[in-house]
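Summary for the steering committee. One of the milestones for this cycle was to obtain a three-dimensional model of the protein with zinc ion bound, which we needed before selecting residues for the alanine scan. The sequence and ligand used are listed below.
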Amino acid sequence: MNDTIEHLATLVREAVNITVLTGAGISTESGISDFRSPGGVWDRYNPDDLNFQSFLSSEESRKIYWKFHREFYLPMKLSKPNDAHYALAELEQMGKLQCVITQNVDNLHQRAGSSPDKVIKIHGTACMVRCLACGATFDREEIERRIDEGEEVPRCESCNGLLKPATVSFGQPMPEEETSRAFEMARSSDLFVVLGSSLVVYPAAQLPFEAINSGAKLAIINLTATPYDNYADVVIHAKCGETMKRMIELVKGDT
Ligand SMILES: [Zn+2]
């Protein structure tokens, strides 16, 4: 294991434009539950109520969706970035980080010090709410206060359109600008690092392919195996936080 972290550190030392993809695994280390894992919030809800079509078509589903999302949001707000988030902020300071593409909606990268313009949120953010009709955005806290005061399904104050957390729900189209930027960043990197993603959901599953196809090296840090392990230059099946912390120490020459 030390050998492989050493190898990862060497790849990072040699790289100039690193693109990192982060998935649920990095957030679970901060105590944020993965929707899809057993025992998660997901288990207590019917997925049919939570997809985008139901949100658009049924007031009852919208009520359930907001209730569900609140159960995710309140603990998320109290969570803290971990060593993996801080390691990425440090890579940015070293001038090596091209960007972080994240599947997470929790804002922990920015809270750890990553610049907002270096973080591409391909699944949106739970910290904002967007009007599906006029596109206006609102701070999540402001909308949560309205829910506290009794609104079950908040609506846009200017156009009465449906408000929804600015995350990408099942069945909801991916944000075009973020997705195309993510692909561009994968292709222009010389090292692509996967942190805590099993690489099964699109577009995460496609990004490492774009990167290696354009000549990048590939490193994967994930607790379980991924479909890309055989194509990677280094694979580490361990926690993201401890691995990245050690890697940064090695890159900086501390022991
Ligand atoms: Zn509106």
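Key point for the committee: The mean pLDDT is 94.
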